[in-house]
Amino acid sequence: MNKIVKYVMIDILKSKVVLTYLLFLIIICFSIFNLDDNTTKGILSLLNIILFIVPLISLIYSTIYIFNSGEFIELLVAQPISRKKLITSIYAAVSLSLVTAFILGTGIPILIYSPDKTGFLFIITGALLTLIFTSLAFLGSVITRDKAKGIGMAIFIWLFFSILYDGILLLIMFQFNDYPIEKLLMVLSSFNPVDISRILILIHTDYSALMGYSGALFKEFLGSQKGSVVIFIILIAWVIIPAIAAIRKFIRKDF
Amino acid sequence: MIEIKSINKRFGKLHVLKDVSVQIKKSNSVALLGPNASGKTTFIKCLLGMLIPDSGQIEINNQSIMGDYKYRNMIGYMPQIGRYPQNMTIEQVFDMILEIRKTSLSGADTELIDAFGLRSLFSKRMGTLSGGTTQKVSACLAFLFSPEIIILDEPTAGLDPLSSEILKEKIKQERIKGKIILITSHILSELDELVSEIMYLREGSLVFHSSIEELQNRTGEKSVSKVITSILKTPYE
User: Fold this and answer.
1) What is the pLDDT of residue B235?
2) What residues of chain A lie within 8 A of the CB of B96, using their CB?
């Protein structure tokens, strides 16, 4: 394993934040699955919580981690190591530990209570969301020098994708009620990784029937093989594009 | 040999380095002097690639350092305020840097570690260290790989008299070995036996860069501190 990844991993494990996150996920999952006999319902309740928590934790933790390892980065920037390797290693270590915590924390309960396709899909999208928001956090913290600003930006990104974006969509829906805007909505939703993950999982459950005409349209497109592939491509683009932007920015950064 | 060709660096509106050109030949030991905020640390950081100059060229042994990182194998750097990962122990920090430089502690220059008695503190976490001990760690790291170029940014600030003596001894030794040494310091009296050239920056411009003998002849003074004060009193041509 890459030595920088190794050192960052040791550091992350020592701080115990990720371990707490793992425990937290396990507790939430077990308590939700135990509240209801219906595991699909359980998955849905879990989905709502996870879609809030995963982006928030990934963003805030990654941002704080990068700012707190300013010293570490400063130390290594003066060493014979390329900046590209440095930042990609830190990214790999942070995202790997968050993804591992997520997969273990939700994977174990899901494997026990709902070991089916939806459960599996749930874990994959959750892991991708973790990667996406870690990438965005990296981009944000490479751009800003100020910790408070960086964290503010992280919170704003979270608010935007979790709440504001849906608000805007709702507004559009009400305003253009009389027009056939389903396709437009579908396109707009695809730009939000949180929304698209939610839709992806919803349409793979029986509850998609409750989503009305838009739901049917979503199901027709996204429920198909092709649709799922498109969604995954979008999600992966959300991981890669901010990450590459962050790396490029970091290479030119002043210390 | 280090060759710096008219580098400029701006931080926003602030023009920190103005067209600085310097040549430092092999086995020269240079004191980088100047008032606060004259661009000393910026200059050093440009050499290390921590800052990227807006324009100009930096060459080490006739190789441009822009976009390169391997050249840093030749450089040992002691920062002004060494900041280290709080959770790592001293030993882990050493191990990490050693691993990056692909050597082991047995193959490295551990003279300073022993002289400072750091081995007994190896299991202490960096976050718990005092400022002085942190400086010692920085110093050890700078000398660990017997680099060809040693850059020390205010090396003795925060060290107790005994430790700063040890460090100065070490610098002298390395100087004899023919290393290029670049020191910034505000304590002029301690530079006497350490440097052979003086480079003076003011508000980002290089005021002068000449050998000590030349400056001594010009001013008729012996010690570095007297030389500098005498130059600063009379306008330099």
Assistant:
1) 62
2) 3, 7
